[in-house]
Write a structure and sequence with these properties.
This protein is of the alpha/beta class. It is built from 15 helices and twelve strands. The structure holds pyridoxal-5'-phosphate.
């Protein structure tokens, strides 16, 4: 019997064949082909010794209390681990749950965190929380490894970046920062939400931990919330003084995730429910097909909009005009389903959006339907004009999350709305 671990991650088999057969690798229950939704909160043991073993970690594969995981969430974790070619994954109730747990459980007061200046608004807001707890935070232009290198201090513990930044699509110097972090012994955390393992595996550039908001690309249907943090096995956790003594046991490669599970799930409680894990798992089966299709449509639509006389800018990494085009085409299998555009006349933006009939005016990303939102007055409103300018977000920026509609239908709709 094959296992995903026997395959090279570059093989598309991991994304497709292995993915749809993943649940069967654990043995089917009652012949069910899907992993069942295990709703039990408690897990029982016939022998008291086994109950004790479950608590002391000597009984392998035992569940004790569903806040720390269930067979359903464990099956999803194994799937994400295989997709990212990592050594383990912990799932959370949301993408933000996975980012918050990673930062709050691995950093301590007095540490220094270097974050990309170009990140998702709620992650940016979380940096303020982390700062309030005594962690110094520097936000730098992560498109340049030199900017990251210049910010390193003796107390620097971690670097946090996104692959393709939501919403302005800047592409961090992932390979350069990965090499720098390895050289300096820093934990390199990469939010892979927009690209997903279908387009890019951050482990290939030396990421220590990979974040995925499962809500978006991986679940893909706008009907489930979830997040995951995957350890690539590349960081030596014995270098990290923040690992609690209780978790400094066995192979150091497992220490980081043990702490994230114990502190992040058990103590903080942002647990993914079995129902949501099931939906995410089923959604993930079409990940590769969806991302191929939506990336092709996004490129076609972005090219069309770029030539339109009423559009002054289109931000999409696979357009030749994008500042990090070359880097993006080297790193990613395609440009993703996310792009942004700006109108020559920003005062016409609301009317143009109102004339569109297919793109749905809604927040959120990575649905089967195209979603559209003006960025500055909505998701980046709380951040304020100064923060928006620092993140390269123009007041007239419109974000588009491309769905599965036919490209010709989307182009026709934009054509009438812009006329
Ligand atoms: C949406 C998003 C998140 C947060 O995910 P949720 O599941 O909504 O909590 C994190 N990072 C990026 C890049 C996102 O787009």
């Amino acid at each position: 019997m094959y296992t995903a671990a026997m395959r090279k991650p570059s093989e598309s088999r991991v994304l497709t064949t292995d993915n749809v057969h993943a649940d069967r690798r654990f043995g089917v229950e009652h012949g069910g082909v899907h992993k069942p939704i295990h709703t039990s909160v408690q897990y029982s043991f016939d022998r008291t010794e086994d109950l004790i073993g479950a608590f002391q970690g000597t009984l392998q594969g035992a569940y004790q209390y569903a806040r720390q995981g269930t067979p359903t969430t464990a099956a999803l974790e194994a799937k994400i681990t295989a997709l990212e070619a990592g050594i383990g994954t912990v799932c959370f109730a949301t993408g933000m749950g996975s980012i918050a747990a990673s930062l709050l459980t691995l950093l301590r007061a007095g540490d220094h965190l270097i974050a990309s200046r170009y990140i998702f608004g709620n992650s940016n807001s979380l940096l303020g929380t982390v700062e309030g707890l005594g962690v110094a935070v520097d936000k730098v232009d992560a498109c340049s490894v030199a900017a990251v290198a210049a910010a390193i201090r003796p107390e620097t513990r971690m670097v946090f970046v996104e692959t393709i930044a939501n919403p302005r699509t800047q592409v961090a110097d992932l390979a350069g920062i990965g090499a720098l972090c390895r050289e300096r012994g820093l934990i390199f955390v990469v939010d892979n939400t927009i690209t997903s393992p279908a387009l890019f595996r951050p482990g290939t550039v030396g990421a220590s931990l990979v974040i995925n908001s499962l809500t978006k690309t991986i679940a893909g249907h706008g009907n489930a919330l979830g997040g995951a943090v995957t350890d690539t096995g590349q960081y030596d956790w014995s270098l990290c003084p923040n690992i609690f003594p209780a978790y400094r046991k066995g192979d150091p490669r497992g220490w980081g995730l043990t702490q994230i599970r114990k502190k992040g799930l058990r103590d903080m409680g942002g647990t993914l429910s079995a129902d949501q894990a099931h939906r995410i798992s089923v959604g993930s089966e079409t990940l590769s097909l969806r991302v191929k299709q939506t990336s092709a449509t996004a490129l076609g639509l972005a090219r069309w909009l770029e030539r339109h006389p009423k559009i002054c800018a289109v931000h999409y990494p696979f357009l030749e005009s994008h500042a990090e085009h070359e880097r993006a085409t080297q790193l990613f299998a395609a440009g993703s389903w996310l792009f942004g555009f700006e109108l020559h006349d920003p005062s016409s933006m609301i009317a143009v959006l109102n004339r569109l009939t297919l793109p749905i005016k809604a927040t959120g990303l990575g649905d089967t339907r195209t979603l559209i939102i003006p960025v500055a007055p909505t998701i980046f409103w709380e951040a304020g004009a100064e923060a928006r300018a620092a993140m390269g977000i123009a007041e007239g920026l419109v974000r588009v999350s491309v769905g599965l509609e036919d490209e010709a239908d989307l182009i026709a709709d934009f054509e009438q709305a812009l006329a």
